Amino acid sequence: MLLLISPINTEEAREAIEGGADIIDVKNPKEGSLGANFPWVIKEISELTPKGMYVSATLGDVPYKPGTVSLAAAGAVVSGADYIKVGLYGTKNYDEGLEVMENVVKTVRDFNEDAVVVAAGYADAHRVGAVDPMEIPRIAADAGADLAMVDTAVKDGKTLFDFMDEEALTKFNDTIHDYGLKSALAGSVKKEQLSMLYDIGCDVVGIRGAACVGGDRNTGEIHRSAVSELKKIIENF
To answer: How much is the pLDDT for 217?
Structure first.
């Protein structure tokens, strides 16, 4: 299980790198759960990330505007991202989600055939009117993406597990694997919850809050010691 840590700037990225994260996931929480950061921030972090680690970039909690999202995907690839993550926030159903993701996949492949395309849904989709998270594996597979993910849309202290229990997460994860894709799970995940995600067979776990001083994704800052602790927990499973 790979550890994905989400810094918002180069200082936090250095902490995540020194802590031993597998994927450095550049995002901007001010613009939402999967808020997009600026191209120059992605580029700077990409340049300081050593070989053997990957850089991920979120495109945002995106609207149902395939052209706009595709253009954002191109910007992320050009800026140096290895993983292109799309939060299907404004897509209300399978058809809309598929249209967005098909165009993102086409765009990314035109620039970098090796880049990993991630279709991300939300465990609490019902709170924001987004596509059902259980549709995300099928959307990802039919669009030709590489990885399907679930996160939480509203960051109000509730976690992934408040909206999807172990049975639902197992089904989500197994469905992704049945399609031959990788899985990622996130949503205010705490260190004591890592073992369950590992047992489910999750390929990537996404964390910000638990890697921050004080455990707060908004007011805290990522610290290498917290990242290192998370990495060691996973390595000992």
So the answer is: 56
CA distance 104 to 75: 11
Give the predicted TM-score (pTM) of the model. 0.94
* Residues 236 and 5 sit within 8 Å (Cβ to Cβ): no
How crowded is residue 103: how many other Cβ atoms within 10 Å of its Cβ?
18
Which of 27, 92, 155, 231 is the catalytic position? 27
Specify whether the CB–CB gap between 69 and 86 falls below 8 A.
yes
Residue with structure tokens 């776990």? Answer: 205
Q: How far apart are CA 105 and CA 146, in angstroms?
A: 9
Phi/psi class of residue 52: alpha, beta or left (left: φ > 0; alpha: ψ in -120 to 50)?
left
pLDDT above 80 (res 36)? yes
Tokens of 94: 């399978």
Residue-wise pLDDT for 203-221, tens only, equals 999 999 899 986 565 557 9
Cβ–Cβ < 8 Å for 136, 148: yes
Q: Annotated catalytic residue: which of 30, 43, 51, 85?
A: 85
Which residue type sits at 201?
A: G
Verify whether residue 51 is a known catalytic residue: no
Can 85 be counted among the known catalytic residues?
yes
Interior CA angle at 36 toward 33 and 39, to 5°? 160
Phi/psi of residue 169, nearest 5 degrees: -65, -35
Find all residues with CB under 8 Å of 167, minimum gap 6, and list them. none
